[in-house]
Amino acid sequence: MTRKLFIPGPIDVRDDVLQKMATPMIGHRSKDASVLQESISKKLQKLFYTESEILLSTSSGSGLMEGAIRSCTSKKAAVFSCGAFGDRWYKMAVTNNVKADLYKVDMGKAIDPEMVDRVLATGEYDLITIQHNETSTGITNPVEEIAEVVRKYDNIVFCVDAVSSAGGVKIEVDKLGIDILITSTQKALGLPPGMSICTFSEKAIRRAGTVEFRGTYLDLLDIYKYLKKKNYQYPSTPSISHMYALDYQLDNILNEGLDNRFERHQAMAETVRAWAIKHFKIFTDQNHLSNTLTVIENNQNINVSQLNSKLMEKGMQIANGYGDLKEKTFRISHMGDYQIEDIQNLLNTIDEILGF
Amino acid sequence: MTRKLFIPGPIDVRDDVLQKMATPMIGHRSKDASVLQESISKKLQKLFYTESEILLSTSSGSGLMEGAIRSCTSKKAAVFSCGAFGDRWYKMAVTNNVKADLYKVDMGKAIDPEMVDRVLATGEYDLITIQHNETSTGITNPVEEIAEVVRKYDNIVFCVDAVSSAGGVKIEVDKLGIDILITSTQKALGLPPGMSICTFSEKAIRRAGTVEFRGTYLDLLDIYKYLKKKNYQYPSTPSISHMYALDYQLDNILNEGLDNRFERHQAMAETVRAWAIKHFKIFTDQNHLSNTLTVIENNQNINVSQLNSKLMEKGMQIANGYGDLKEKTFRISHMGDYQIEDIQNLLNTIDEILGF
Which Pfam families match (chains A, B) (predicted)? Predict the structure, then answer.
C-alpha cells in the first residue's frame, strides 16, 4: 500500500510527476541535455524571483549547503542556528577547515535580526548562513528583516537554506539580496529526493574566485564555470531522471500560479495550526510559524510512535519530533501538492484514533 | 524518438527498470528504507565478491572518487593516470589540499605494474588510485597484477575506479585486496545516472579515522558510521527512486548469472573489435582492451560528428573521442543490457552509412 507522507520530506509525488522519472535516457553531453537544463533554469528563476544563475547538484540539499559555505567563505562564516539543520551547517564548516562561529538560539525560537546585526558589526565575517525554514522546529526565520541587516554591510555572502520551504513560500531572492538560496526536490517542490538546487549570485561567484580549497564535486564555482562554458551542461553526469521530472513539475507549479501555490500552503498551515491549538499547543514561537511544517508540543502526553503506527495502518504517516524533541513534539508537514482536503482527512483520522 | 545510446554512459535502461524509477515515495527514516538498503547491500556484495560494507552516495561517480581520496589519504596519494578520469582524481586531491603525486602514461597505454612497484617502494605513499577502466581511452588496467604489487606493501589503501566496468566485468574485490571500489549506476549496471556506489574495507575505515578534514557529504566514514548506527540508513536523504531501481536491477543481474553477464560483455566487445580491425584500427594497447568500451582510431579520416548525426537520425548514438582525441578517435560502448544483436545492428548501420 502506498502511504500518504505528511513527514517533512520525502513527501508524496503525483503520479504524472513520478512517471517522468521513468523517461528514457539521453546523453548528458547532447544538445537535448542543454535544452533541458536551460528550460529548468528559466523556470526556477521565475520561482525564486531571481536573475542569478541556477545550479543543480546531484546530491541532497546537504551537498549544496556544504558546497556553499566551503566555496564562498574567505574570512570567516557566521552560522546562525535555531535547530538541527543550522547546527549541521556549522559541522560542515568545521569538517572542511572553514573558519566559522556558531550563534544559536533556543529550539523553537527564531534568529533575531538584532543578533545578526551585532555579530556582523564585529567585522569578522564575510559570509552568513541561516535556515529560511528550520525542519527540526518548524521555525520560519524573519528573512526579510535579516536581509535588511545584511544589506547594511559590505561584501557579506548571504546563504539561505530553503530546503523545506522553497516552492511553498514566496522568497524573492534578488529583492532580498540572497546570494545563495538552496533547496532540494523532495519537499515543497513535490518531487522525489536526489537533486538539490541553488541560486548563485555575481557576488558569490566573485567570492568563490578568492577561495583556495573548494574541492571539486560540490564546488559551486566549478559547476558554474562548466555550465557557462558548455551551454548548460555539468562537469559530471547529473541525474537526468530528476531533471525531466523537475522540468515537468515546474510547469505544474507555474500553471497553478505562484501566488495560488503560496496561498494554498498558507491555508494548509492555518488548518493544521487551528487543530493543534484546539488539542495541543504549537511548539514554535507563534510569530515565526512555518507555512510548510507545523511542530506540535505533545502536552497531552500521547504516545506519538503509537499514533503513527495506527496512522500507517490507515495509509498515512506523520513525523515524530527531531532528535531530543522525539515524543515531546511531533511534526506534520503540509507542502508540495497536497490540498486542504488531504490535510483535513489526516486531522480527522488523528481525531478518530485519539478519540478527540 | 528514443535513441539507443552506445555512448559510455548514460546507456539505455530497460523499460521495466525505468518503471521502478517511478515507485511511490517512502520515508528515508522508515523501516522500509532500512530493508531496501540492506537488500541492495547484500546483492552488491555478491556482484563485487566482497564482505566489505557497501556505501551508496546520491552523487555521480566523481562524488565518491573525491570522497575516497580525501577521506583516506593520510600521508600522500599516488595517482596513476592513463587518461582523463585518472587526471580528474589528481585534480580532486589538489582542490582538497590532499597531498598527491600524479604518475601518467601515454593515452592508450595501461598503467605498468612495475611503475606502481617503483613508486610504492619510495615509502612516500599510503593510498593509490587507478582506473579499472579508463573511459577516455578504452583501457582496462591490469588490476590483478597491480593488486599483487600493492599487497607487497603495508598499509596502502587501494582505490579503484570501476565506474565504466563494474557489473560488466568480473572484479573480485576481496581477493584482489581492493579497499574502495567505486562505480555508478549509469554504465554496466544498466540504470539511470544519479547514484554512486562503493565498497569500504576495514583498512579504509581505520585509515579514515586518522584523517582530520574529510568534509561531510562525501566523507565515507561519516556515511559508514551512520549506516551502522541507524540500521542501513543515510545521514541525508538519498535518491529513493534510484534505490528501488537498483534493488530491482540487481535481481535481473543476479538472475542472468554473473558469469553469463561477464561473458556477454566479452562477446559484445569481441564483435566490436573485429569490426574495428576490419575497417579502422583499435586506438588502445591491444593487451589491455576493455570489455565495456572500444576506442577506435579514425585512420580513415571519416567525419565522426557527421557519422553520429546520421546515426542519430536512425535512432542510435555513439561517442566522439574524448577531449583532444575528438575526431582522431571515436568510442562505442557495449555495456549494460545490450545483446549481441543490438551491437551487430549498430555496426551494420554504420557500415551502411559509411558505404563499407
Answer: Aminotran_5 (PF00266)
The shortest C-alpha distance from A291 to chain B (Å) reads 21
Q: Which residue in the set B5, B22, B59 is minimally distant from A217, CB to CB?
A: B59
Which residue of B30, B241, B312 to mutate against A (max A Cβ within 10 Å)? Answer: B241
User: Cell match 544589506: residue?
Assistant: A151
Residue count of chain A, please give it.
356
Max intra-chain CA distance, chain A: 62
Across the interface, whether the CB atoms of B22 and A18 are under 8 A apart is answered: yes
- Kindly report the nearest CA distance between residue B261 and chain A, in angstroms: 22
Q: How far is B192 from chain A (nearest CA, A)?
A: 7
Question: Is A24-254 the same fold as A4-9+257-354?
Answer: no
CB pairs A-B closer than 8 Å: 187
The backbone torsions φ and ψ at residue A198, rounded to the nearest 5 degrees and listed phi first, read: -145, 160
Cβ neighbours of B305 (radius 10 Å): 12
> How many CA atoms lie within 13 Å of A287's alpha carbon, on the beta-carbon side?
6
CA distance B72 to B112: 24
Chain B residues touching residue A25 (CB < 8 angstroms): 5, 10-13, 186, 192-193
- Chain B residues close to A16, C-beta within 8 Å: none
Domain boundaries, chain A: 4-9+257-354, 24-254
C-alpha A68/C-alpha A37 separation (Å) is 21
CATH architecture assignment, domain A24-254: 3-Layer(aba) Sandwich (3.40)
Asked whether the beta carbons of residue A241 and residue B236 sit closer than 8 angstroms, the reply is no
What is this model's ipTM?
0.97
- Degrees (nearest 5) of the Cα angle A13, A18, A22? 160
Q: From first to last of its 356 residues, what are the pLDDT tens digits of chain B?
A: 567 999 999 999 999 999 999 999 999 999 999 999 999 999 999 999 999 999 999 999 999 999 999 999 999 999 999 999 999 999 999 999 999 999 999 999 999 999 999 999 999 999 999 999 999 999 999 999 999 999 999 999 999 999 999 999 999 999 999 999 999 999 999 999 999 999 999 999 999 999 999 999 999 999 999 999 999 999 999 999 999 999 999 999 999 999 999 999 999 999 999 999 999 999 999 999 999 999 999 999 999 999 999 999 999 999 999 999 999 999 999 999 999 999 999 999 999 999 99
CA closest to B19 among chain A residues: A22
CA distance A175 to chain B (A): 31
Other C-beta atoms lying within 10 Å of the C-beta of residue B46: 12
- Strand pairing report for A127-131 and A77-81: parallel
Residues of B with Cβ-Cβ distance to A61 under 8 angstroms: 236-237
Which of B13, B58, B92 has the CB atom closest to A25's CB atom? B13
Q: Tell which CATH classification among 3.20.20.70, 3.40.50.620, 3.40.50.1010, 3.40.640.10 matches the domain B15-254.
A: 3.40.640.10
User: Are A5 and B21 inside 8 Å of each other by CB?
Assistant: no
Bridge partners (DSSP) listed for residue A198: A55, A182
* CATH no. of B4-9+258-354: 3.90.1150.10
Fold type of domain A4-9+257-354 = Aspartate Aminotransferase, domain 1 (3.90.1150)
